[in-house]
Amino acid sequence: MSETDRHGRPVPALVVRGVEVFPGLLDPAAQAALVAEIAAVMALAPPVQPETRFGRKMSVRMTSAGKYGWVSDRRGYRYETRHPSGVAWPPIPAPVLSLWHRVTGVDRAPDCCLVNLYREGARMGLHQDRDEADFGWPIVSVSLGDEARFRIGGLERGGPTDSLWLKSGDVLVMGGAARLVHHGIDRVRGGSSTLIEGGGRINLTLRVVD
Ligand SMILES: O=C(O)CCC(=O)C(=O)O
Ligand SMILES: [Fe+2]
């Protein structure tokens, strides 16, 4: 199990380009509990395959919980207070919020829990998360289901990168000097987990938006 510091915060087993990695922070029971909570979110706010401004479909399916959800369509990408269907985003599930507070030590709650659903063949290109008002707040990222190769670069585009395989139950924190590092998902190893109904991987990305 994970070690904790004197504030009770888990100690990252690994730091890659400033990104804190907590491998296996969630045990199988905690993973299953989160997946059940996220299934309830997805029932109210079904994942959609977003389009870019240029009309290209992303391979990942997305939905959100919280005050804001991240959406992309022909009008571009932005945070919205409603799902494309018009319903408000469901609240961020309590166990997700407690995980945020546990790994960040931050009192403020996140505004957005982006749910990324990677089915067979889905990936996410190298990017920065920079649609938020204040980069002083960290980002927490949770992996559930199939393993995925996560790529981490630097603050500039086109620099050197490192990669690591993220497994179900792994948690990352991107904060401080690493808040704006480039990152993406090269590929997902299909069938490496049976956690997600219908197969694949779910990533939860928690952010303070405004
Ligand atoms: O799926 C992941 O692990 C990364 C997701 C991500 O970077 C994002 O949604 O901004
Ligand atoms: Fe990201």
TrEMBL record:
InterPro entries xrefs: Alkb, AlkB-like, AlkB-like_sf, Oxoglu/Fe-dep_dioxygenase_dom
Essential cofactor(s): Fe(2+)
Pfam family, one: 2OG-FeII_Oxy_2
Sequence positions that bind Fe cation: 127, 129, 183
Binding site for 2-oxoglutarate: 116-118, 201-207
One Gene Ontology cellular component: cytoplasm
Residues that hold substrate according to the record: 70, 77-79, 131, 157
GO MF annotation list: broad specificity oxidative DNA demethylase activity; ferrous iron binding; methyltransferase activity; oxidative RNA demethylase activity
Protein name: Alkylated DNA repair protein (DNA oxidative demethylase)
Keyword Oxidoreductase: yes
Keywords: Dioxygenase, Iron, Metal-binding, Methyltransferase, Oxidoreductase, Transferase
UniProt cross-references to PROSITE patterns, sorted A to Z: FE2OG_OXY (PS51471)
Organism field: Rhodovulum kholense
Free-text cofactor note: Binds 1 Fe(2+) ion per subunit.
Signal peptide start and end residues: none
Domain of life: Bacteria
GO annotation (BP), single: methylation
